[in-house]
Structures are given as structure tokens and as C-alpha cells.
């Protein structure tokens, strides 16, 4: 497999545009799009449509110079799968990750933070998961039951494990207030890892990750639908930093636009009812809306347990919940079950799906499941699919 190179994230581009006096447009207008071609590209082009003549059609093209302190390509796990033919690609998806309490020490050596789990993440053409933490060592702790923060080396850990893009559209990205959010955006700007779903303004937060994988143009969107303090206080606005919200029109409009342009569209959501294996009505309604807009696959996290995954009758693949992946606590129950879902695409269709079950060990690492544990999780995976009303194979 060709070694992957990283585009500039939307958040840092937006910050650069603001610093240069190129304000982004209103939240409903076209925002920055992170673009990279066939994973060997080292230049990212970003187009912003603004309201003023000076901001309209601004283009920023920047060549990245990776920091010598970050993991290099040689530190990433080697690819073990055979490359699929042109026009097809694989996308690996995992759930929630944070670095608190027992997992915080994993960042002492970011290149090995994921331990045995890294090999499972690196096999696909593209890998994505949810980073559920503020990236700061300061900030104002919010008044919440649980708050998470981690140093910028958390991004290095994801990069070293083979993750290609992360979402931070979740209910913990702003756990340390406005200054913590600015630290988060600065860390993203200094990282080789593209992060979506959070940004310096709405245009940046809602911007999709875009790439071409084996000849297939791909757009990945990320939003949160968890109604709590983060959405109430830190939903990104025209002139304010924050996370991308599923309750604003930018998501469906962006999906529809990308699909009409002939792009394969994947949406990664933070949603659902915690500890419930069956999707709730809000999840199903939003999945219907995204499928109608042209999404090829809809995946999500937040429930802390595995939820149903499979094909709808219209051929759209939905994975309602991928559970905790690398996590700060164990609970001795189904909350410790997780795994890596790998989707195979042919053009705009998900043609196959495989789930590699894992289970949290005492250090918070997702260890590939074996024996009776593997069989139990796979049975759970099948049962949850039936609960969600999804099929185990694509429609003919």
C-alpha cells in the first residue's frame, strides 16, 4: 500500500484565512473543502466562497513540512492487505477514543499508543475514528459530569496508528471552554492528521474531508447530534469556533451537493441514546434524511455500546454505533465490546462489510477478540442488526 500523506485540516486553513483578512462566508454558504488526491499529494487546496469581493474564490495552497517530533511514515504499521483494483477501495471505521486516566500514559510514546490495535486500523485504504476530547493542557473546565482533555500528542498517536482522518464533532471537544477550543484548533493546525467536525467558524467546522481513493472521489462529513452543553454553547457559527451540529442545514445541504457532483459520501455522526443497542427514532429519521440526500454510508458513535449495522433496502449502509474503542475506563460488560468495521466500496456503493471484534483490556486497549468472547460479540453484532431493521447483505 502506498504510504499516506496528509492534507491541511480545514480548521487551520480557516484560521489562516482569518489571519489574512479573508473572512469566510455565512454559515449556509459554501465553506472550505480539504482536498487531497490519491494519498501521495502533499499540497492541499482550499476554496472559500465569502460574502465580500476580497474573500470570494480565495484559494490557499500549502505544502506541508512534517515536524521532526511527529511519527514518520516508517513508524506506522505496515499494510498487510492486497490493494483492491481501481474504482474500489476500503474504509476502516472505529469508535470513540480518548486519553484520560489509564489511557493517558499511552501518550508517553505516541507511536505505540494503540498497541496491538494499530495493525487492525492500518489495513484499509482509509481509516477514520472519533477523538472524544479537548486537545489542551489548560482551559476552563466545563460544568459536566465527565470532562476529557489530552495533549497534542494525542493526534500523533492517531497518526502513528494508521488513522487517516478523525472527527471531533462530539460532546467533549469543548470540555475546557473557549480557550481550550482555541488550543484544540492550534493543535490540529500543527498536526499531520486531518480533523473534521470542528473549526474556527461554521465554514471550517462543516467542511468535509475530501480525497480521491483509487479513482473514486470521496467526501466525508462529521457532525454531532448529542444535545448537551457543547452544542448549546459551542456550535460553530459564522464568526465563532465550535463543532458541527446535525441540527443545522449545512450537513444535508453538503451531502446533497457532494452526491450531485458524483462523489461517494460518508457521514460520521455522534448520536444515539447511551447504553441502548437499538437505534432511537432520531437516529433512524436522520439516517433516512441522509440516505435521501445521497449518502452511501452513515456511521456513528456515542452510545458506548455496539448498535445495529447493515444495509437498508435502498443500498445505503448504516452502522448506528461502534462503541468505545480506546477508552479511559472499563465496565465489565458490553461497553467493553468494540471492533473495526471495514467497508468495501465499488464506486458509490458499499458492496461488502466485515467486522473484526475486539474487547477492552485492563489498559483500555481494544484487543482482538478470540474464542468465546469473539463468538459472543459477533452474535451480539448480528442481534443488533435485526433490532435496527438492517440486512446482512446488500440488496440485489
Question: What does this 3D model show about the protein?
Answer:
This protein has a single domain, classed as Metallo-dependent phosphatases (Purple Acid Phosphatase, chain A, domain 2, 4-Layer Sandwich). The chain is built from nine helices and 21 strands. The chain is 22% helix and 27% strand. Strands 4, 5, 8, 9, 18, 19, 20 and 21 form an eight-stranded mixed sheet that branches. The protein has a seven-stranded mixed sheet with strand order 1-11-12-14-15-17-16. The protein has 396 residues and is of the alpha/beta class. It has helices at 10-19, 118-121, 153-160, 177-189, 202-205, 229-234, 250-260, 281-293, 371-388; strands at residues 34-37, 43-48, 58-63, 88-97, 126-131, 134-135, 149-150, 165-167, 195-196, 198-199, 209-213, 216-224, 242-243, 264-270, 297-301, 309-311, 317-319, 324-326, 337-346, 349-360, 366-368. It starts with 9 loop residues before the first helix and ends in an 8-residue tail after the last helix.
CATH class: Alpha Beta
CATH architecture: 4-Layer Sandwich
CATH topology: Purple Acid Phosphatase, chain A, domain 2
Distance between the termini: 31 Å
Tell me about the largest β-sheet. 8 strands, mixed
Radius of gyration: 19 Å
Helix content bin: 10-25%
CATH homology group: Metallo-dependent phosphatases
Query: How many domains comprise the coordinates?
Result: 1
Residue windows where pLDDT falls under 50 for at least 5 positions: 1-74
Q: Give the rounded overall mean pLDDT.
A: 83
| Count of alpha and pi helical runs | 9
What's the number of extended β-strand segments?
21
- SSE series: HEEEEHEEEHEHEEHEEHEHEHEEEEEEEH
Outline type: globular
Given the helix and strand composition, which structural class is it? alpha/beta
Beta strand %: 25-35%
Amino acid at each position: 500500500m502506498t504510504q499516506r500523506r496528509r492534507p491541511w485540516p480545514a480548521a487551520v486553513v480557516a484560521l489562516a484565512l482569518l489571519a489574512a483578512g479573508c473572512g469566510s462566508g455565512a454559515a449556509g454558504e459554501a465553506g472550505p473543502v480539504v482536498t487531497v488526491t490519491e494519498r501521495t499529494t502533499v499540497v492541499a487546496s482550499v476554496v472559500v466562497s465569502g460574502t465580500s469581493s476580497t474573500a470570494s474564490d480565495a484559494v490557499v495552497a500549502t505544502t506541508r513540512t512534517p515536524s521532526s517530533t511527529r511519527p514518520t511514515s516508517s513508524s506506522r504499521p505496515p499494510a498487510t492487505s492486497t490493494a483492491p483494483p481501481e474504482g474500489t477501495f476500503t474504509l476502516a471505521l472505529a469508535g470513540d477514543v480518548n486519553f484520560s486516566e489509564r489511557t493517558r500514559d499511552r501518550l508517553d510514546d505516541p507511536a505505540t499508543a494503540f498497541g496491538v490495535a494499530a495493525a487492525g486500523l492500518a489495513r484499509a485504504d482509509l481509516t477514520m475514528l472519533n477523538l472524544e476530547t479537548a486537545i489542551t493542557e489548560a482551559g476552563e473546565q466545563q460544568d459536566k459530569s465527565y470532562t476529557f482533555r489530552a495533549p497534542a500528542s494525542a493526534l500523533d498517536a492517531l497518526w502513528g496508528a494508521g488513522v487517516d482522518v478523525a472527527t471531533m464533532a462530539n460532546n467533549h471537544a469543548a470540555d475546557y471552554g473557549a480557550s481550550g477550543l482555541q488550543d484544540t484548533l492550534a493543535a490540529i493546525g500543527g498536526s499531520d492528521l486531518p480533523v473534521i467536525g470542528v473549526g474556527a467558524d461554521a465554514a471550517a467546522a462543516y467542511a468535509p474531508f475530501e480525497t480521491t481513493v483509487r479513482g473514486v472521489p470521496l467526501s466525508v462529513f462529521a457532525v454531532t447530534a448529542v444535545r448537551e452543553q457543547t452544542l448549546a454553547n459551542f456550535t460553530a457559527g459564522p464568526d465563532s469556533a465550535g463543532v458541527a451540529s446535525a441540527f443545522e442545514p449545512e450537513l444535508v445541504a453538503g451531502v446533497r451537493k457532494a452526491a450531485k457532483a458524483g462523489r461517494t459520501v460518508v457521514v460520521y455522526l455522534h448520536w444515539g441514546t447511551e447504553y441502548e443497542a437499538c437505534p432511537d427514532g432520531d437516529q433512524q429519521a436522520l439516517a433516512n434524511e441522509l440516505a435521501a440526500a445521497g449518502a452511501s454510508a452513515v456511521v456513528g458513535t456515542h452510545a458506548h455500546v455496539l448498535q445495529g449495522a447493515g444495509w437498508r433496502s435502498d443500498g445505503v449502509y448504516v452502522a448506528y454505533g461502534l462503541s468505545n474503542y480506546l477508552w479511559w475506563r472499563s465496565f465489565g460488560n458490553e461497553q467493553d465490546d468494540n471492533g473495526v468495521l471495514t467497508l468495501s466500496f465499488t464506486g458509490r456503493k458499499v458492496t461488502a462489510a466485515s467486522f473484526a471484534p475486539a474487547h477492552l483490556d485492563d489498559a483500555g486497549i481494544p484487543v482482538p477478540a478470540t474464542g468465546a468472547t469473539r463468538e459472543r460479540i459477533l452474535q451480539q453484532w448480528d442481534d443488533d442488526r435485526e433490532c435496527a431493521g438492517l440486512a446482512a447483505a446488500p440488496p440485489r
